[in-house]
Design brief:
By secondary structure, the protein is an alpha+beta fold. It is built from six helices and twelve strands. The strands form four sheets. It has a four-stranded antiparallel beta sheet, covered by helices on one side. Bound molecules: zinc ion (ZN).
């Protein structure tokens, strides 16, 4: 099927096409609008409750790079970085938020000890991506590091409980509510948020630095060594 060189599919446009979006040809002057439409449809399709499909990040990162131009994306982000490294993607009222981890390559005691977690917000109406902030170097983050370190080093921590399940055998289960700093001071939803954030941070740290693997244990966060680790 010959597509390049055919007519743009935009209403009333007679220009020659140069771009394809999902098999449909568009001319250079309608490419952005057509892609934007494609992004908005995918955004609408995403329920916002579950993680967006991998394809969504491809479309979103491409859309952002079309808005700003590669090399001019805020926060020194690139299309590839958004596509491959964005996590904690949440649908918001008028757009979405996501996180990216930047490593600062400080290799100490056989661990990457420095990194920065950045929070970004994208507003659809304004077509604007902004850096909301960096790693809040707060108690929750400190505790996440402490727990991940304790998991890696097997030194024990009030938030880590050794359990045995029929399905998985011995595993380390994380109990964020065993951490006084996480549950203190305020009540209600902020605690749930801190618990979530602590768990999310532990997941990141463990994925980045640990040889342990995550165990599917319902809503609980659990880890164990690969079965062939000691063999
Ligand atoms: Zn056109």
């Amino acid at each position: 099927m010959k597509i390049i060189g055919t007519r743009c599919n935009w209403v009333d446009c007679a220009s020659k096409s140069a771009f394809i979006i999902q098999g449909v040809p568009y001319c250079p002057s309608h490419y952005f609008s057509a892609f934007e439409k494609h992004f908005l449809e995918e955004y609408k399709r995403w329920d916002g409750e579950t993680k967006p499909p991998e394809e969504f990040l491809k479309i979103f990162s491409r859309y952002v790079s079309l808005i700003y131009g590669e090399g001019a994306i805020p926060g020194a982000l690139s299309r590839a970085r958004i596509r491959d490294r964005a996590y904690n993607i949440r649908k918001t009222e008028g757009g979405l938020t996501f996180c990216i981890v930047r490593h600062l390559y400080a290799w100490t005691d056989y661990k990457w000890t420095q990194y920065v977690e950045q929070f970004f917000k994208f507003s659809i109406d304004e077509k604007k991506l902004e850096l909301l902030g960096e790693d809040p170097d707060d108690e929750v983050n400190k505790k996440a590091h402490e727990i991940a370190d304790a998991l890696c080093d097997l030194t024990g921590h009030p938030a880590i409980v050794l359990k045995h399940s029929k399905k998985h055998g011995e595993m380390f289960v994380i109990y964020p509510r065993n951490v006084p700093e996480v549950i203190s001071k305020t009540t209600g939803k902020p605690i749930a948020n801190r618990v979530k954030r602590l768990k999310a941070k532990i997941v990141i740290l463990m994925e980045a630095y640990s040889l342990m693997s995550r165990v599917d244990y319902g809503k609980m966060l659990a880890y164990q060594y690969h079965s062939d680790y000691f063999s």
